[in-house]
Amino acid sequence: MAEAREAAVKGYWVAQVRVHDRAGYTAYRAAAAAPIAAAGGRLLVLGGAPEVVAGQMAPETVIVVFPSLAAARACYHGPGYQATLALRDAAATVSLAIVAGHAG
Description:
By secondary structure, the protein is an alpha+beta fold. It has a single domain (2-100), classed as 2-Layer Sandwich (Alpha-Beta Plaits). It is 42% helix and 31% strand. A four-stranded antiparallel sheet has the order 2-3-1-4.
């Protein structure tokens, strides 16, 4: 049943990002674009300066949508995206969650 749910709902990467090397982060984004696109991922939010109305957030938010939760997980854990993590981690501090879209 869990596998059917993973295929039936969209999957999202939701990230909070603190960039400390803009050029390095740009290089990471360029490297990550191909494996994300190959998994059907599409960038929805790539922004800075959030209007924080409760709690605390990092300066930038990134949201990527995938055709399914399984695709979001497979992309993150796949060799193509994993090969980009050294670039990402050298350029930014990232908190990232993979979440299921709402089925209703």
